[in-house]
# Entry
Amino acid sequence: MLFAALSVIWGIPYLLIRVAVRELSPATLVFARTAPAALVLVPLAWHRGQVRAVLVRWRWLVAYSVVEIAAPWLLLSTAEERLTSSFSALLVASVPLVGVVLSGVFSGGADRLSQHARRGVTEHMDVKRLAGLAIGLGGVAVLAGVDVRGSDLPSLLEVAVVAVGYAGGPLILSRRFADLPGLGVVAISLAFTAVVYAPWALTHVPHHVSAEVGLSVAGLAVFCTAVAFLAFFALVTEVGPVRATVVTYINPAVALLLGVSVLGEPFTLGLGLGFPLVLAGSVVATGGRRAELEGTAAS
# Structure
């Protein structure tokens, strides 16, 4: 039930963002999404004693907040002013592919970078993973090549940065916060992001917000952020962190379905050809690594 709920909940934000940016600036939307979620999660994390240990590592916390939340959510909202929600979701679906590359590049820490330079990153990737990367990146190329117009290129680059951020955030978590509860990290990161965007949001309050946009913002803040993270941590407790991330394979399909059925976005040739390739490439590229991590966790 948790898996099914998260698969749907984290497939909805693309639609809600697309609706919200009709009347709100991207920065205002980020604040409106993070502030209420922080008000819910920070007291809960404090009650569980998960705040102080996180604040001790404030430098890495700031880095994680910028890479995983503050920058990606702003860029994604900005991109969706021009791109459809379904197209944006399928580009973000390349996160597992980017994660494989980043993991290979930074595997082993700074003390092993010289070894990577000599032997190359490919020693950490077997043929299966390289094939998965090729398939997935081919899907992104098809998606972008068929559906992107010249005026959309800046938005395409913005979503590409989002994908890198979403892939880099978990690397920071696994290397710097693996011994700490995830709720504390996320709660403080949301609060940090809200504080950063507060000056802009509070001085650029829109004169009018429709009920549709208001409900979209409330859905983003309460269900797609606060409730979603609580459900994710519960899922991690049940099945482990590796299996829990499989929801990333389902979210884009939900976003695509909602974009086409609710917002009336076109189901283009690029979506039809690119999505299966991106999904298949992600599954193949991360399959071996996933199995290794499961074995480690089981031991």
In short: The chain has one domain: 2-298.
